[in-house]
Write a structure and sequence with these properties.
The structure holds two protein chains of two kinds. Chain A is α+β, with helices and mostly antiparallel strands. Chain A contains six helices and ten strands. Chain A is elongated, with a radius of gyration of 21 Å. The chains are: A alpha+beta, B alpha/beta. At the A-B interface, strand 4, strand 5 and helix 6 of A face strand 15 and strand 16 of B.
Chain lengths: ~200, ~850
């Protein structure tokens, strides 16, 4: 019995364990086959972090795997010439320099940061998703719960069902889809776009 | 060769004949040892690597000492040489033609490379037959490089350059052969060096490569004598040419100067010697701390006792109030009595006599005498103990301060030595730029241009040192830049037409009979090194392609400008190392930034310079750092003055020729030496060399004030032009302008006509450099740009435009005969807005221009 339990460990809990103890071998194998059949979709679960973007309830979901650290923002932020309006500045991060971006301001394509006091927000430090995408600091007002998101339930489309005031039309390309009405951001697109726009700001000055 | 000259069989000679022959050989050896060394009796049709005889470098520069054949063959060779030379000359011409065709192709044409292989193979055979080792080997190099390019082992661009150099070497060797009747090996040696520089290892690249293809060291002796002692000569060369995907910094070793290593060792030893004094000082501090703690403990104990005495004294006064003045001398007695009162409710009457008082000073407390301690009250004893404890604390504090001072002193010395070790370690990685010179010189001298004209190579500042990794990264791109520029004489339009050419072309034409100049001027600016690679003549387009990416990887910058003699100069700015920087800490907009000492001539607090600037009418040389960085000024008043007109702020007087630019800053906070790191690509900004992080976790921008000023002036010029354009009634305000850059007069004229007919104001540029100059002056709305042009081609111009923010609003329409997708993708990647191929219908062009203007 125990030797088979690992195959269904993704949803293993005590209730299931006691149930497994009580069923017959035939029933067990039937269950095992059923579980094996749905293993593919079970693996496709990804943990997402709810990020609150403003006081009016705007929020989005970010893939946790794309985030390296969630920390309080440092008080010392240096300004960089020719920054986009939604960029807060530079902070020291593990001996390197990290660009910090007001996520809500970026998504709204705002010409200035929306967070008045950066020290009151939460800093999400992204991990290296791809070599060309250096880590970034995404500053948000607050975070919510993490949600396991079954990908088959993610509604993939180009635009949200109902327009949201915090998402500018020019930022629609970073939306991966929606889940229960909450917009899920595509981290690769988001980070690539931010990095590209920060770089281009140097040319646009 | 073996068929023509079968190996001589000595066994057929009689003993007498053999003896005579031996004597002759001895005589010959004695008369000309160099010749004797070079004679290869086993010489066959193919050049051989079997020779291990050392040849002195000096001998290598001389015509090859080995005669073409033995004396008995001389007549035959004399007859054959003209025939061989004529045939080889024709073959070399075929090679040149084929190479030129390959250069003009959009894509790699394998058929042409195969043709190259065939012709080279033929030369290899015939040269080998006639006994010309160098020519045979060079021909094999051509054959092998072509094979490597076809196989994709060698980058086509690098391969093409190598092939050009090989054909030049072949030609030079043939010329020498015809002129001197002897084969020179110098060109082969130069070629070998070039291949090494390009990272093309011919001998190891093909399984079928015959042994003769590994050029023995004695054939390229000049390399060791010409090359400077640098990593270039010692670091392992890559097996094949490096591709763009490979990491930039590949050198696993650095070459270390022995003198510097010894200096580092000495500083390391000095730092190690400080270890014992440091430990001793730490121990002293610990002892002093313990003594202080003991003194403090005693003081605390006395405090308790004092509290007890104080309570006792209070009770004593109460007791005295009841029992008159019969008071116990001991607090212990007083406490016992006091407790008894509390317990019984009665005051007990204590019998005793008044103690005799100790001698008192005339005024003040009694003089303490330990021998008379019984005469002092407990309070007096306590006060004395307090005094002693306080004195102990003072002494311990003093000792602690002293120990701390000693520790601080040693720590300072340790810090100095640590800084020395760090700086000397960084110095170990530095190498003078002169390490590049021999290769650059070879590249120039072996160029086709140098074959037809005299080219002079001038260098200044070659002793300036730079990090070896940076030099390694720069080495090949810089060589490529020079090679590309002097690849061949540019057939300029002015020369072709003989009229109305650009000033530089006129100059060039006038000076055609004179000397062409290539120069490398190097200057150090603190953390950076500025290099000017200049050419007095027009250069081939596409030169920037080789170096632009490397410069970006090195966090450097590159600009192009026309120099005083009418040619082109490429200005490179590179970091000297990725180590530390020393500079002023300056406050701007509430944050700290760092200005390298090397950029500041002095600091002016009295605004003397400011007053001077008004008198000398150089107001445009006065800048405010906040404006340069475009960071809002800090609202807090500075420590040097008050807000308002009376503010006195420090002004940095920059290092420059008179008049010196002045930069006003909010406050100077001090100086520091910090480790500077380059910014990530997306964070790079002109005027920001890198960032440092101080001990408080602040991110400090390392500024390049001259660059910031240049950018600021560019912005200011753009603003002025925009304002002028907005002036109502200006006829040009409603008429959009287009600059057409194409080296074809016909194309330019037809475009000018069409675009003017369509209502645009049109200007023309005959090459990339001309276009850049006109862009900077005219700021047109649209640039119609060709790719194939001399003096910066279209790609070069697109790349370099990134360095000019004032030109970012110019829309660029490529109009070129290059139709392949890769060209289109490259142009768009570099910033072009639209891509059209020639011939282009007029309607399509106008429609495209309208489209890009409407974006």
């Amino acid at each position: 019995m125990e030797q088979h339990s690992t195959s269904i460990s993704t949803s293993f809990d005590s209730a299931l364990a006691s149930h497994l103890e009580q069923i017959s071998d035939d029933e067990f194998w039937t269950l095992a086959h059923q579980q094996a059949a749905i293993t593919g979709s079970a693996i496709s679960h990804e943990e997402y972090l709810e990020c609150k973007l403003d006081g009016s309830g705007g929020c989005c979901l970010l893939a946790l795997e794309a985030l390296g650290q969630i920390v309080l923002p440092p008080h010392r932020i240096a300004l960089l010439p020719a920054m986009p309006g939604w960029m807060i500045g530079l902070v020291a991060w593990r001996g390197d320099t990290l660009a910090v971006v007001d996520l809500a301001a970026y998504l709204a394509d705002s010409k200035y940061p929306l967070i008045e006091q950066p020290s009151e927000g939460i800093l999400l430090v992204t991990s290296h998703i791809r070599e060309e995408n250096p880590p970034l600091g995404l500053l948000i007002p607050a975070i919510g719960l993490t949600t396991p998101l079954p990908l088959e339930q993610l509604r993939v489309h180009d635009a949200p069902d109902t327009p949201v005031d915090w998402l500018a039309p020019t930022r629609i390309d970073v939306v991966r889809g929606s889940y229960n009405g909450t917009i899920v951001l595509d981290m690769r697109s988001l980070l690539s776009a931010i990095v590209q726009r920060i770089g281009m700001a140097a040319l646009d000055e | 060769m073996s068929e023509l000259f079968p190996p001589f069989d000595e066994s057929q000679l009689s003993p007498e004949e053999r003896e005579v022959l031996r004597r002759f050989e001895e005589l010959e050896d004695a008369a000309d040892p160099a010749s004797a060394l070079a004679v290869d009796e086993n010489f066959e049709a193919e050049p051989s690597t079997s020779s291990t005889s050392p040849v002195s470098p000096a001998a290598a520069d001389q015509p090859a000492a080995r005669p073409l054949a033995l004396a008995s063959e001389a007549d035959f060779l004399e007859d054959m040489l003209p025939i061989f030379a004529f045939e080889a000359d024709e073959d070399i011409a075929v090679l040149r033609r084929t190479l030129r065709q390959i250069e003009q192709d959009d894509a790699l044409d394998v058929a042409r490379l195969t043709a190259l292989q065939r012709v080279a193979h033929k030369i290899k055979g015939t040269a080998g037959a006639i006994g010309c080792i160098s020519m045979s080997t060079i021909a094999y190099q051509i054959e092998a490089i072509s094979r490597l390019v076809i196989a994709g082992t060698v980058n086509p661009l690098l391969g093409l350059h190598a092939l050009v150099q090989a054909v030049v070497a072949l030609e030079v060797t043939l010329d020498g052969l015809i002129a001197d009747r002897q084969e020179h090996t110098g060109a082969l040696g130069e070629l070998q060096a070039e291949l090494e520089a390009l990272g093309i290892e011919v001998a190891a690249s093909g399984a079928n490569a015959p042994a003769l293809l590994s050029i023995p060291d004695n054939l390229v002796p000049s390399l060791s004598s010409e090359s400077s002692p640098s990593l270039i000569d010692t670091a392992p060369e890559p097996v094949s040419a490096r591709t763009a995907e490979e990491p930039a910094f590949v050198s696993p070793f650095v070459r270390v100067d022995t003198r510097r290593f010894e200096q580092l060792l000495r500083h390391t030893e000095q730092m190690a010697e400080l270890q014992a004094p440091l430990e001793q000082a730490q121990a002293q501090v610990e002892i002093a701390l313990k003594e202080l703690q003991a003194a403090q403990a005693r003081l605390r104990h006395l405090e308790i006792v004092f509290s007890t005495v104080a309570i006792s004294s209070q009770n004593q006064y109460m007791w005295l109030g009841a029992m008159n003045d019969d008071q116990p001398s001991s607090s212990l007695v007083a406490r016992i009595l006091n407790e008894a009162v509390g317990r019984t409710g009665h005051f007990s009457q204590r019998r005793g006599k008044l103690r005799s008082l100790p001698a008192k000073s005339e005024s003040g407390p009694p003089l303490w005498d330990e021998l008379e301690i019984e005469h002092f009250t407990e309070s007096e004893v306590l006060v004395q103990q307090f005094s002693e404890a306080i004195a102990d604390v003072a002494t311990a504090s003093s000792q602690l301060r002293l120990a701390f001072a000693q520790l601080h002193d040693i720590l300072q010395r340790h810090k100095v030595e640590a800084a020395n070790v760090r700086s000397h370690t960084l110095l170990l990685r530095q190498t003078p730029l002169s390490a590049l010179l021999s290769r650059l010189q070879r590249a120039i001298m072996m160029s086709a241009l140098a074959q037809s004209r005299e080219v002079r190579f001038e260098v200044t500042g070659e002793t300036i040192e730079i990090d070896q990794d940076i030099l390694e990264e720069l080495k090949n791109p810089l060589l490529q830049l020079v090679r590309s520029c002097v690849l061949e004489s540019v057939p300029t339009e002015a020369e072709e037409m003989g009229e109305g050419g650009h000033e530089s072309y006129k100059n060039h034409e006038n000076h055609e009979k004179q000397v062409d100049r290539v120069w490398l001027h190097v200057q150090a600016f603190g953390h950076e090194v500025a290099m000017e690679v200049g050419f007095s003549m027009p250069v081939a387009g596409g030169a920037l392609d080789a170096i632009y990416e490397s410069i970006l990887r090195l966090n450097g910058r590159i600009f192009a400008q026309r120099n005083k003699v009418g040619g082109i100069s490429f200005q490179l700015r590179l970091p000297r190392s990725q180590g530390t920087a020393q500079g002023l800490l300056v406050r701007v907009g509430g944050q700290q930034v760092m200005v390298p000492f090397s950029q500041v001539q002095r600091i002016d607090y009295g605004r003397r310079e400011t007053e001077d600037r008004e008198k000398t009418d150089v107001a445009d040389l006065f800048y405010i750092l906040n404006d340069l960085l475009r960071i809002p000024a800090s609202p807090a008043p500075t420590s040097f003055g008050q807000s308002g007109t009376g503010t006195v702020r420090p002004v940095l007087v920059l290092q420059a020729d008179q008049p010196r630019p002045l930069v006003e800053v909010e406050e100077i906070l001090g100086s520091a030496e910090l480790v500077v790191k380059p910014l990530a690509a997306h964070l790079r900004r002109d005027g920001i060399t890198g960032t440092a992080i101080d001990g408080m976790g602040n991110v400090l921008l390392l500024l390049n004030l001259p660059d910031l000023i240049r950018r600021h002036r560019g912005r200011r010029a753009t603003t002025l032009i925009s304002d002028e354009e907005k002036q109502p009634g200006s006829p040009e305000s409603t008429r959009q302008s287009i600059l057409v850059a194409d080296d074809s007069v016909f194309i330019r004229q037809s475009l000018l006509y069409s675009l003017r007919q369509a209502g645009y104001a049109v200007a023309e540029a005959r090459d990339g450099m001309d276009a850049l100059e006109k862009l900077l002056v005219q700021h047109p709305d649209v640039l119609v740009l060709d790719i194939e042009m001399p003096n910066l081609n279209g790609y070069d111009l697109l790349s370099i435009l990134h360095a000019y923010p004032e030109l970012t609003r110019v829309k660029i329409v490529m109009l070129t005969s290059r139709s392949s997708e890769k060209h289109q993708a490259r142009a768009l990647e570099l910033g072009a807005h639209a891509y059209l191929t020639k011939p282009c219908p007029q309607d399509t062009l106008l429609e495209t221009i309208e489209n890009v203007l409407s974006r």
